[in-house]
Specification:
Blueprint (H helix, E strand, L loop, with lengths): L1 E7 L4 E4 L5 E4 L2 E4 L7 E6 L6 E5 L5 E6 L21
Parallel strand pairs: 1-7
Antiparallel strand pairs: 1-4, 2-3, 2-5, 5-6
């Protein structure tokens, strides 16, 4: 089955949660093996809050994700824990 996946803004990296496999970047049409179990996908884009959604693998369809910008001054990938020096 085929699922067209997009995001606003476009260009989000799509990562299959179960194994960390990168499926590509939005917009993209992805072929999934038909299953009654949804497939959790994480959408990541620099400067935006990551979002995880379950993609239905029952029939062809579309999924659109709206990503929210990170609050100003927050960059989780670059933040360091205080008091963790030398550990």
């Amino acid at each position: 089955m085929l699922v067209g996946i997009g995001s606003v803004p476009p260009g989000a990296r799509m990562v299959r949660v179960c194994d960390g496999f990168v499926l590509g970047n939005t917009p993209e049409t992805i072929e999934f093996r038909r299953s009654t179990e949804p497939v959790p996908i994480r959408f990541e884009l620099e400067g935006y809050i990551p979002v995880t959604r379950a993609v239905s693998a029952v029939e062809d369809g579309e999924l659109w994700i709206a990503l929210e910008p990170l609050p100003k001054g927050r960059h989780p990938a670059t933040e360091k824990s205080k008091g963790s020096r030398g550990h």
